[in-house]
Amino acid sequence: MSSVGKLKSCSDLDIGKPAPHLPPHETEWNHMATNAPNTELNPKRLALLLAALIATAPFAIDTYLPAIPAMADDFGATTHAVEVSISTFLIGFALGQLIGGPVSDRIGRRPIALTGLVVYIITSAIITSVESSTALNVMRFIQAIGGGFALVVVGASVRDLYDGKEAARMFALIAVIMMIAPLVAPTVGSVLLVWFNWQAIFVLLVIYGSVMLFVVWFKMPETTKYRPRYAGPARRIWWTYLGVLRTRKAVGFMLTHTGASAVMFSFLTDSPFMYIDFFGVSPAVFPYLFGCNVVVIVICNRLNNPLLRRLECHQILMIGAGIQLASVIGLFFAINVLEPTLYSVVPLVMLSVGMIGLTAPNATASFMQYFPHIGGTATALMGTIQFATGAVAGMMIGHFHDGTLLPVTISMLCFAIFANLMVHFVAEAKLPEVAYDFNTPETKTETKPVSAE
């Protein structure tokens, strides 16, 4: 049996049936939700499917990182002008989740995933013909909205089916499988760049998106157990988000994850400049240095399961955030105080970025446990803040770029400190938490507390 436990079929989970406290007429599904395949939800198969879906994001970012200097030459722009498209993508990704999350709570996960993949495919095809960095930024923004739609259903689907440590194990399993994408993506991008051109990278994204569209249509089950009582007016969505933000301890977990992720996004945005321009690494070698970070993330993810047998989610989160901060402090001094070399910088970057393997699954599972009825909305808010913060970090690094690595290391240090402050706030919080029902301003619903007391 899988480490994430035996999962029942859709019928056993009462999917599409009235919840005990809801009238039958309020559990109607839309066409795409009701036509979901009634497959057995084997945890490993589900993890593989969700990981492949979430991999649309790292494929869209990491495959073209080695090609950024070549794209800049093609557009007649600077490397940093093209690097802005990374931040643009992150903003669109955040917006896609902000919109897609609450909608998926109302109409189901499958329709949102399918819509997002269609947008992703069309925009990837259009990018192959753009002729300027401005056009690239516009299309990357729209492409990312589709990617955000696809991503937001992953966390929501896990929350539909798992709680607490089981959710953390599932997130870790998904992350391990998904890490194949950033591990191989830069290498694939380099090969396509050498043998063809940068446009071939986006042709690959069209192919991958098309395959995922086929898989989701025929294989992805609808995991939502029931719909809210009614969709309500648009303002009700904002009330729902406000309710999430008023759940203090949950927000602490969300901000911890945001800070730790922003450390990674800061490096990600400036990695082509750091390795290719500053240290003079060739585009062919760049993927291997980038892949070292992914290896550490995978190792940390695999350590998560045995750690969960002995520790609570928030304790593992504190360990990961603490190691990340220590590594970033070492990186800051290695680059800005000592004489920076690849031999000193790469291992510290690996630890700084690799701790995401410990922080991400535990912060996400702890946060999501507060919101059993609105997993899509909660996931959307978490993803929106996470990716929007990463986008702002990237833009600030670009704005203060001075030809050194000082801006990126300052950004990484600030966010690592922030993550540690937030995780200690969560550990110290002793007040019981109540998550809002979100369907009416007057109604509240008790949720199971996360073991962080």
From TrEMBL:
The keyword Membrane applies. InterPro entries: Efflux_drug-R_Bcr/CmlA, MFS, MFS_dom, MFS_trans_sf, Sugar_transporter_CS. Its main location: membrane. It is found in: Cell inner membrane; Cell membrane. Residues 44-431 form the Major facilitator superfamily (MFS) profile domain. GO terms for biological process: xenobiotic detoxification by transmembrane export across the plasma membrane. It is a multi-pass membrane protein. The keyword Transcription does not apply. SUPFAM superfamilies: MFS general substrate transporter (SSF103473). The chain crosses the membrane at residues 46-68, 80-100, 112-129, 141-158, 170-195, 201-220, 250-269, 285-304, 316-335, 341-358, 370-398, 404-423. Gene3D superfamilies: Multidrug resistance protein D (1.20.1720.10). One of its GO terms (cellular component) is plasma membrane. Residues 1-28 are annotated as: Disordered. Belongs to the major facilitator superfamily. Bcr/CmlA family. This is Bcr/CflA family efflux transporter. It comes from Thalassospira lucentensis. The lineage of its organism: Bacteria, Pseudomonadati, Pseudomonadota, Alphaproteobacteria, Rhodospirillales.
